Amino acid sequence: MLPPRQQPRPGGLQTSLSLVVSPDACGSPNPQERGSTSDQARDSPSESASSRETWPTSDALMAKKLEKEKENGYAEHSVVRNMPNSDKISLRDIARERVDVIADRMRNLPDEYLEKFKYELRVILEGSGGAQHRNEFQFLQRLVNCRGELTEGILCLTHRTQLEILVAIKTGIQAFLHPSVSLSQASLIDIFLYKRCRNIACGSVLPAEECSCEICSKKNGFCNLCMCAICNKFDFEVNTCRWIGCDLCSHWTHTDCAISNGQIGTGPSVKVGVSSAETLFRCHACSRTSELLGWVKDVFQHCAPTWDAEAFVRELDFVRRIFQRSEDARGRKLYWKCEELVEKLKGGVADPMACKVILSFFQDLDDPSKNQGNDEGARPIAPLEAFGKIADVVQEAIRKMEAVAEEKMRLVKKARLSLEACDQELKDKAREVSMLKMERQKKKQQIDDIESIVRLKQAEAEMFDKKAAEARREAERLQQITLAKTNKSEEDYTNRYLKQRLCEAEAEKQYLIEKMKLQESSRASQSSAGGTDPSQIMYSKIQDLIKNM
To answer: Where mainly found (predicted)?
Structure first.
């Protein structure tokens, strides 16, 4: 039997990655293949805990960066707002446009814009937006998977951020967008083309170990070193019964996937010379069987001393579900022992005690002296001894029936609790529906009130428009009256000014005439005295001019 599952690379990345698995290229004819690689692949309750993206600094770094930029007076989206429309691109553009065109445009974009771009895709991959984000991711993945021209030569032309986004869309893994994860361009191209394992902690060249089985030969990104042969997902759980390994082809399978897919059942023993039935695991890759009891024993012997109470209960639950439908005696004993230990651990039994009990139980299963009773059936026995053995058999049967009854009661109690939880959930949902209806009525009333206020404001606006029109008409009328009065005032002023000037001119004329008369009289007296004065000629000319005026 294979040893407990170990890390593919002990020195690799010690954190869980997203287990969203990208489907194969569009139009895959194999429906089972599409189902095994889709987001709706079989997920177990325990798998969901280790299937989450656990990068603790991804969103924190971006949030701190945004807060810091807001404190400095600007937000990161201001960069996007100030970008020219010709340079703006979206995730859909990267998923469907030509590689060289997008690469040239991305080289002209600032680093802040590219980081915000990767952060937007990480939010979509997280699925915090519910169905909207899931639908957007599926649409982007279909766009990428339908592009047959994305060969190695074409991908060499991509921008670094563009290639990371394409790989993240195809694989559905956020880690490729994380700032602390830096892979070479060749590695990213190999992961995109299914030539290298998408598990960053593994990174094996595919097919791993040159495996030629049916699953590895499909070249759909499956890695037999770290992925489940059924759901094609990986995680970093080691030293656990969560993973079952095939003894022959060394492929690994989730325990929950094997149970749900019917890969675990009872069959003839694979050991040579043993004809009894035992619980077997049938590998999904090679269809060959491996026994499970010895594998569980090896896991507990190597790893149980290091488990805490929570891990011990989880591992016992895995073993209990593996052997729940077992039909062989040893498998049923192991099932009941796991049930017993789980109850004791929940009741407060110390971890070392439970470890000693289960290891002692495995030793008792392998002790030949415990099974010698099967060889004594051929010899005659005394009546008292026969009665004692019959009593032991009856007591064993009664004990098993009581255990079965307890199991049934436990299942009934569990079902009743589930039913009560469902009823409570229905009540809560009904209460939420009623609250939503009340909220809807309240919103409707508020909308009606707002509409009435809007109508009132519209009526007021119309009234003010009418008053404004009347005021404009009155202003125009007053302006016309003012203009007319102004014109009339200017005309009156002109007339009065002209009359005043005329009067002044007449007075000046009379003054000059009088002056001229005086001068004539003086000249006449002088002429009588004798001689002609030259100034007389000048005065005569002036007099002629005045008369002409």
So the answer is: nucleus
**Contact by Cβ (8 Å): 331, 278:** yes
> Which position has the token pair 């997920």?
43
Nearest one of 377, 336, 374 to 357, comparing CA atoms:
336
Q: Which of 519, 522, 525 is nearest to 540 (CA)?
A: 519
Distance separating alpha carbons of residues 535 and 514, to the nearest angstrom:
17
In DSSP terms, which residues pair with 290 in a beta bridge?
Answer: 281
Secondary structure (H, E, C), 358-422: HHHHHHHHHCHHHHHHHHCCCCCCCHHHHHHHHHHHHHHHHHHHHHHHHHHHHHHHHHHHHHHHH
Q: At what angle do helices 99-107 and 160-171 cross, to 10 degrees?
A: 130
| CA proximity to 354, closest of 406, 318, 400, 311 | 311
Query: Going by C-beta distance under 8 Å and a sequence separation of 6 or more, which residues neighbour residue 217?
Result: 207
Helices (H) and strands (E) in the chain, counts: 18, 5
Q: Which of 259, 355, 277 is nearest to 44 (CA)?
A: 259
Q: What is the pLDDT of residues 23-34, one digit of tens each?
A: 343 333 333 333
Q: What is the pLDDT of residues 357-406, one digit of tens each?
A: 888 888 777 665 554 444 444 345 566 767 677 777 788 778 778 878 88
Distance CA 42, CA 35 (A): 9
Query: Whole-model pTM?
Result: 0.52
For residue 179, is the peptide bond before it cis, meaning its omega torsion is within 30 degrees of 0? no
> How is residue 227 annotated by DSSP?
B
Break the chain into its structural domains and give their ranges. Answer: 88-193, 234-351
Residue 332, CA distances (Å) to 277, 435, 443 in order: 12, 51, 61
CA distance to 10, 102, 176, per residue, from 298 (Å): 21, 54, 36
